[in-house]
TrEMBL record:
Keywords: Cell membrane, Membrane, Transmembrane, Transmembrane helix, Transport. GO terms for biological process: siderophore-iron import into cell. Belongs to the binding-protein-dependent transport system permease family. FecCD subfamily. One of its GO terms (molecular function) is transmembrane transporter activity. The chain crosses the membrane at residues 12-31, 37-57. It comes from Cohnella faecalis. This is Iron ABC transporter permease.
Amino acid sequence: MIRNPMASPDVLGVTGGASSAAVCFLSYFAGTVSIRFLPVAAMLGAAIVTVALYSLAWKRGVTPLRLVLVGVGLSAILSGITDDDGAVQSEERGDQAYVWLTGSVYGRIGRTC
């Protein structure tokens, strides 16, 4: 769409928005809201960052260069928010967020589809 090989979701901050939303969900809402809503929170975070990215890059139109530069800035900010939020929580919540962010196949061995 923007013809820029650097414009992947992780560089533009979309992945960072999903990660930040997931860690915030696990930090603040995991005890009160069902964990089944975690993917929804991550998708909402990615959608909000996508809208913010496009809005911040808009100046009489969006150029690919401006979109990538704004995206790199958003990605750095969201990475800091994710790291900070995960670090200040309890050890259990921090571990849960870390496992969700990195992925896990725990408990899946021996099961068939």
